[in-house]
Give the backbone structure.
Amino acid sequence: MITQSHEYKPDVLGAGYEQLTLNFPDDYDGKVTATLVRKKADQPTQKAVLYIHGFIDYFFQKEMAEQFNQHGYDFYALDLRKYGRSHLAHQKYYYVLNLNEYDAEITEALNIIGQEGHSSVVLSGHSTGGLTSTLYAAHHPKHPLIKALWCNSPFYDFNMPLWKKKLALPKLSALGKRLPKLQFPSELNKWYVTSLHKDLKGEWDFDLEWKKKTYPKVYLSFIRSIYEAQKEIHTGVQVNIPALIMHSHKTTYPKKFNQDAQTTDVILEVKDIIKYGNKLQGDLTVMTIQNGLHDLVLSAPPVRAEVYQKLFEWLALKDL
């Protein structure tokens, strides 16, 4: 196999991490870039993983990358357009009109991974990235590289009462088509980032500009783009590769910082993940992680150790 080299530069995560800027045609806001981050395994391998972060997020989970490296995978992650490393001064953070906009960087990243000598890719996504990666896998059933899908608490439904889903969401989505820049209360639990960051009440070091402590309002364009993508998921899309859907054991809504904020999903309703995860068609495994946070790989040490054990056991079982 002939491999092609690309001009990576050192990444903010330090030794062994490299980044590559991906350029795309201008969109409705102007210049657009995405960023591919790479961490290679110690030994040459044809296996790789491509990770896609969630909303108000970016790639910083070094332990996850190194776990994949230790199990014989080169690790790649995307910072999507208008997120993290890819955000440009003229752009509104996280602004999107349709989740399919991200197909361009996922496709380009996969092309690069293939050019760099890989024949097998685990496509992975967390939260909104789990929704995006599921739909990408469903829309590209014959992609030559994608051999498995691993979703970490995918955003398969909005976490809100049924009456809001039935009455408010369709109206907000319709309004979002006409007034995409209108903002609406996000209702995100304020304790989530607090439970993670080392300077607050967690153990992780990340950039609080790129992954903000609070985000009180979202653009209606985001609500519309998610709603339209979820409608497709809710019909039960076909996924032609083995898929592993992981989620916490329960959802809570802490009003003050407490143990629930450190041992449950405070962002999405896990019952929705289970319901719609099980509607996917194909070789599917939906798995509960006891005491998991919304981002399962940021949970307490014994919890995330179980995540990795179960993940790599599953990949071995599927011969991936």
Observations:
- The domain at 9-317 is CATH 3.40.50.1820 (Rossmann fold).
- The chain has one domain: 9-317.
- The radius of gyration is 18 Å.
- The first strand starts at residue 9 and ends at 10.
